C-alpha cells in the first residue's frame, strides 16, 4: 500500500462516468490536478469538482484545440482568477501549418503574460515544441510543471536550470528516450502523472496503480526504498501546493 498517491495531470472529464472517477480519487485519497482543455469545459465542471477535497480542477486551453476554438482567450482570462492551477496549456508542434502554430503561440503568450506573477501552477504541453515553449516561458513568474516531457535534451537542461518540475507518467518509463530524459531530472523536481485516459492501460478505467510502478522504477534507479521515493515525491508536491491551504 502506498502512503502517498498523486496525479499531477489527468483528464477526468474525458471519462464516461466522471463522478465515478472523482469518487474513486476521493476514496483512495490521491492528490489530483484535473486538467481541462478549454475554458468552456472548466466552466462546466468547476463547481462539481469543487465539492471534492482531493481533486483540484485546472483551467486550460489545449494547443491542439486552438485551431477549432480560437476565440476563448477572454473567457480564459476571466475564469483563470478562480483557479490556482492552469492546464493544459502550451504548444504542439505536430502540425506543419504555420498559421495554426502562430495561433497557438499567440494564445500561449497571452496566457503567460496575463498570469505572470499571479502565483499560478502551470501544467505545460510541449510535444515537438520544447524549444518554442521554453522561449515563451522565459521570464514567466510562476510554478511550471512540464507535462510528459519528450523534447530536446538541451531544452530539458534549460528547464531544469529554471527550476521547473516534471510530471512523469508510466508510458515514459517504457521508451529509451523517456528513460534517458528521466535519468537527467533531479529527484527534487519529480511529480507523477497519468495523462489518463491517454495512456493505453487507463483508457477505459481510471486507476492510481501507476503510482506504484513509478515508485518502483525510481527505487531501483536510485537504489533506495519505495517509501523513500514516496516521501520525496510528497515533499515535491507539497512545495507546489504550499501557498494553497485547501489541499
Ligand atoms: Zn493531457
Commentary on this structure:
This protein is globular. With 247 residues, the chain is an alpha/beta fold. Strands 4-5-6-7-8 form a 5-stranded parallel sheet. A 3-stranded parallel sheet has the order 1-2-3, with helices on both faces. The protein contains 10 helices and 8 strands. It has one domain (5-241): TIM Barrel. The structure holds zinc ion. InterPro entries: DNase_TatD-rel_CS, Metal_Hydrolase, TatD-like. A divalent metal cation 1 binds at residues 9, 11, 88, 195. It comes from Lachnoanaerobaculum gingivalis. Pfam families: TatD_DNase.
Record keyword descriptors for this entry:
8 strands; TatD family deoxyribonuclease; hydrolase; 5-stranded parallel sheet; 3-stranded parallel sheet; metal ion binding; Metal_Hydrolase; TIM Barrel; alpha/beta; single chain; globular; 247 residues; binds zinc ion; DNase_TatD-rel_CS; 44% helix
Amino acid at each position: 500500500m502506498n502512503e502517498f498517491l498523486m496525479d499531477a495531470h489527468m483528464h477526468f472529464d474525458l471519462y464516461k462516468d466522471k463522478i465515478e472517477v472523482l469518487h474513486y480519487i476521493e476514496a483512495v485519497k490521491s492528490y489530483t490536478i484535473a486538467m481541462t482543455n478549454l475554458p468552456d469545459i472548466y466552466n462546466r465542471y468547476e463547481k462539481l469538482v469543487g465539492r471534492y477535497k482531493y481533486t483540484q480542477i485546472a483551467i486550460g486551453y489545449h494547443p491542439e484545440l486552438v485551431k477549432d476554438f480560437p476565440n476563448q482567450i477572454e473567457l480564459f482570462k476571466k475564469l483563470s482568477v478562480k483557479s490556482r492551477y492552469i492546464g493544459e496549456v502550451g504548444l504542439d508542434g505536430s502540425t506543419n501549418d504555420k498559421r495554426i502554430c502562430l495561433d497557438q503561440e499567440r494564445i500561449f503568450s497571452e496566457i503567460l503574460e496575463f498570469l505572470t506573477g499571479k502565483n499560478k501552477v502551470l501544467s505545460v504541453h510541449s510535444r515537438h515544441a520544447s524549444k518554442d515553449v521554453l522561449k515563451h516561458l522565459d521570464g514567466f513568474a510562476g510554478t511550471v510543471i512540464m507535462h510528459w516531457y519528450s523534447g530536446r535534451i538541451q531544452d530539458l537542461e534549460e528547464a531544469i536550470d529554471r527550476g521547473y518540475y516534471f510530471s512523469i507518467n508510466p508510458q515514459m518509463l517504457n521508451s529509451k528516450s523517456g528513460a534517458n530524459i528521466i535519468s537527467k531530472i533531479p529527484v527534487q523536481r519529480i511529480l507523477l502523472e497519468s495523462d489518463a485516459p491517454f495512456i493505453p492501460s487507463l483508457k477505459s478505467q481510471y486507476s492510481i496503480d501507476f503510482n506504484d510502478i513509478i515508485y518502483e522504477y525510481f527505487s531501483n534507479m536510485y537504489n533506495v526504498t519505495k517509501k523513500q521515493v514516496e516521501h520525496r515525491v510528497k515533499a515535491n508536491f507539497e512545495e507546489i501546493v504550499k501557498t494553497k491551504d485547501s489541499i
